[in-house]
Amino acid sequence: MAAPPDLAFDPWDPAFLADPCPAYAELRALGRVIPYAPTGQWLVPHHADVSALLRDRRLGRTYRHRFGHEDFGRTPPPPEHEPFHTLNDHGMLDLEPPDHTRIRRLVSKAFTPRTVDRLAPYVRGLAEELVSRLVRAGGGDLLREVAEPLPVAVIAEMLGIPEADRAQLRPWSADICGMYELNPPPEAAARAVRASVEFSGYLRELIAQRRKAPGEDLISGLIAAYDEGERLTEQEMISTCVLLLNAGHEATVNATVNGWWALFRHPDQLAALRADHALVPSAVEELMRYDTPLQLFERWVLDDIEIDGTTLPRGAEVALLFGSANHDPAVFDAPGKLDLARRDNPHISFSAGIHYCIGAPLARIELAASMTALLKQAPTLRLATTPHRKPNFVIRGLEGLDVEIG
User: Fold this and answer.
1) DSSP helix/strand/coil, 318
2) What CA–CA distances, in Å, run from 338 to 45, 250, 289, 360?
3) Residue 229, pLDDT score
4) Over the stretch 158-177, which tens digit does the pLDDT of each residue have?
5) In the chain, what are the domains?
6) How far apart are CA 105 and CA 225, in angstroms?
7) What is the DSSP pairing of strand 402-404 with strand 139-141?
8) What gap in Å lies between CA 116 and CA 187, rounded to an integer?
9) Treating both helix axes as pointing N-terminal to C-terminal, what angle do 169-177 and 234-265 enclose, rounded to 10 degrees?
């Protein structure tokens, strides 16, 4: 695999992380699939291909349902990483049918639209309370004061995690998600393993408590969920809870701060939003597209596949570039322009196909709730200091977002 020389795509370069769009444009001009030697992946930058491959059953999030590591031409993960992989590999995001189908069906019985709708007043009330605190303080870090505590509290409330235990959830999640970056260093892997052990142990005890004394929470619902005699195993329940927590707030946290940072850089759009709060739903979609919180989704090639004359063999790995797809001019008119009134907006920030985000409706409620509360209570909200990007590519966010009011 030989990458084109002098490729601008460099997920470890701070300049690239600050603005990956020029590199994405270069990739789209180079072709539909581009080899990238540093990660051993094939980069897929076009919206049509990303959308199609998310639905193509010749690719999968895992290969273990069909092949062993050696059969697939892959080296098994180091034994010391086993706690992370046990946790990660039993979650439905990293499973393929039939296991994925069975687990998603069971989870859907507890994670219903009615459950999400019932949470909406709680979400709006909490958003208003958090923003009110920010206003009384005259400003602060929007990430830590609003963007982070809102979705963490909501998913913890859904799962039935006691309030006293919630402070440890975000650090565990952040350490586990460090393993989703490209070529994570050994120290990141060690943190992910430690967090996997601690988080799994905590949930195992909580699940045991809910078995003895069920409540109205999602964990109790997962314990009770069954279909045609099938139930979730304890490991599947633990992995599902971790997945729902991690996916249930990481994207929302980063979408919130990425979105407000974009608004501060586009004062005309912010002014339009302040003048017309009815723009909030389309603004949420446009901000998710404009600065996508999940930039890349990996898939394994399970059967040889040809893309534009290039054969990707079984065992290859593709990197579906969501950030590039969401800026593809073949799909989006003036993709580099932030347009909160954009109507034709088929972004793929929530993925597609069988792995479409089960929590997308809840994420939209959370993003709209915090945005609405800030627009109403803090109409003079402004940037206090220029934020710094996290040194991450796959999960794109800021270290913080300092704001002031007045």
Assistant:
1) strand
2) 20, 23, 9, 22
3) 73
4) 899 999 999 999 899 999 99
5) 14-404 (1.10.630.10)
6) 9
7) antiparallel
8) 37
9) 90
One-letter amino acid for residue 241 of the chain: C
pLDDT at 246: 86
- Give helix 360-377 / helix 149-159 axis angle, nearest 10°: 140
> For 338-343, which contacts have Cβ atoms below 8 Å and span 24 or more sequence positions?
338/262, 338/266, 338/269, 338/286, 338/287, 338/290, 339/269, 339/286, 340/269, 340/272, 340/273, 340/279, 340/282, 340/283, 340/286, 340/287, 341/272, 341/279, 341/282, 342/282, 342/285, 342/286, 342/289, 343/282
Strands 34-36 and 402-404: unpaired
Question: Which helix H or strand E contains 273, and what residues bound it?
Answer: helix 267-275
* pLDDT per position as a tens digit, 363-378: 999 999 999 999 999 9
119 within 8 A of 146, measured Cβ to Cβ: no
Instruction: Report whether 384 contacts 402 (CB < 8 A).
Output: yes
Residue 406 has pLDDT above 90, yes or no: no
Say which residue the tokens 């979705």 belong to.
Answer: 151
With 70 as the cut, is the pLDDT of residue 5 above it?
no
In this structure, of 137-146, 277-286, 351-360, the range with the lowest mean pLDDT score is: 351-360
Q: What average pLDDT is seen over the chain?
A: 93
Q: Give me the DSSP letters along 340-369.
A: TT-------TT--GGGS-TTHHHHHHHHHH
Average pLDDT on 233-243 reads: 92
Look up residue 127 and give its two tokens. Answer: 């958003």
Hey, what amino acid is at 185? Answer: P
Strands across the sheet with 317-321, in order?
34-36, 41-44, 317-321, 296-301, 59-60
The residue to which tokens 């998603």 are assigned: 104
Q: Would you state the pLDDT for residue 230?
A: 79
pTM over 0.70: yes
